[in-house]
Amino acid sequence: MTEIVLFHSALELRPGVTAAANRLRAAGHTVHTPDYYDGEVFDDLDEGLRKCDALGYAEIARRAREAVAGLPAVLGFAGFSLGTVPAELLAAGRPGALGALLMHSAVPVEGFSEFGVGRWPAGVPVQVHYAAEDPWVEAEEVAALEATVRGAGAAFGEHTYPGSGHLFADPDLREFDRASSEAMWRRALAFLDRAGARS
């Protein structure tokens, strides 16, 4: 199975993140859930994003790297929404990455140039999940990431779901969509199994 680092969204380590980690553990994976928000949990996305702005992406990246410093080199990375930023950054810049599971967001590799990442590493697969009408996700950015990942000879999977709910896989939020969430987890678990087999 795969050892995974799962990064929370701008709402922090809500029960939905814990439930997701437990779901992955029940499937046989080892899961780490770093807290890069100082323990502050939010119910409102705008409040959570203000916390993000106060920290800044450079500090979030520093905390993410610090969180995995003592972990094995061979890891899979996953993230919800804002958490896809550190997940992608580490998958792209840390040797030994098995893959990146990106839920509710994706950033082109060019967005990581300030962190010393200029290209996607050869053979590291990516899977992206988001609602088709999610106003927080730009299809052009997903397409740009796909081109870079495929250009590095790695597999890329893009899965869209009905509606506009951003964190549709979080059972504690109003935008939760059970059918979409279950479909996402089936695909995500298969992706992680394949990634783990690479190790």
Describe the structure.
The chain has a six-stranded parallel β-sheet, with helices on both faces. The chain contains six helices and six strands; from the N terminus they run βαβααβαββαβα. The protein has 199 residues and is an alpha/beta fold. The mean pLDDT is 94. The radius of gyration is 15 Å and the shape is globular. It has a single domain, classed as Rossmann fold (3-Layer(aba) Sandwich), CATH 3.40.50.
Secondary-structure blueprint:
Elements: E1 3-7, H1 15-26, E2 30-32, H2 45-55, H3 57-68, E3 75-80, H4 84-93, E4 97-103, E5 126-131, H5 139-151, E6 156-161, H6 178-198
Parallel strand pairs: 1-2, 1-3, 3-4, 4-5, 5-6
Helix pairs in contact: 3-4
Task: Note the run of SSEs as H and E.
Answer: EHEHHEHEEHEH
Report the CATH C-level class. Alpha Beta
The percent of residues in helical segments reads 25-40%
**Average pLDDT over all residues:** 94
CATH topology: Rossmann fold
The total beta strand count reads 6
The name of the CATH superfamily reads Alpha/Beta hydrolase fold, catalytic domain
> What is the total domain count?
1
Q: Biggest sheet: strands side by side, in what order?
A: 2-1-3-4-5-6
Q: Note poorly predicted spans.
A: none
State which percent range the strand residues make up. Answer: 15-25%
Termini separation (Å)? 9 Å
Mind describing the biggest β-sheet? 6 strands, parallel
Task: Tell me the number of helical segments per DSSP (H or I, 4 or more residues long).
Answer: 6
Q: How much is the radius of gyration in Å?
A: 15 Å
| Structural shape | globular
What CATH architecture label applies?
Answer: 3-Layer(aba) Sandwich
Structural class: alpha/beta
